[in-house]
Amino acid sequence: MRSRREFSPQTLSVLAALCDQPSRWQHGYALASQTGLKSGTLYPILIRLADRGLVEACWQEEPQPGRPRRYLYRLTPGGLASAAGALAARPQQQPSGRPAAVAGARQPGGRGAAAPAVP
Q1: Which of 6, 83, 93, 115 lies in the 20 to 30 Å Cα band around 45?
Q2: What digits encode the pLDDT tens for the residues 32-56?
């Protein structure tokens, strides 16, 4: 079972998007575009991060004429520290975007265990 301190891969992608420009307010549509997450996944993550004090949120002060106001998000100082630590600790990504194979794990479509990693 996952501990409360650990972040899901989807949450890590949101944190990474927010870390790109931590002091800049970003709206949900831009975050969805950056992360590839659907609104049904993205907004609950943002709400949970705000509830934990890692993200602050506010209404846009001056929307563009003819457009509705948007809700904006950015990392808090504590959120930036938590995000930086969590992103540094996440598994390394291969160019394909998949996590690197764990030594001794079965390879998809393969037979038996993978060769042990050489130090």
Answers
A1: 93
A2: 999 999 999 999 999 999 999 999 9
CATH for 68: 1.10.10.10
Give pTM, 2 decimals: 0.69
82-113 burial by CB neighbour count: b if 16+ within 10 A, else e?
A: bbeebeeeeeeeeeeeeeeeeeeeeeeeeeee
Nearest to 22 by CA among 76, 69, 64: 76
CA 28 from chain centre, in angstroms, equals 13
CA 115 to CA 119: how far, in whole Å? 12
Q: Would 111 be classed as within a structural domain?
A: no
Structural domain for 50, as ranges: 9-89
Residue 115 lies in a domain: no
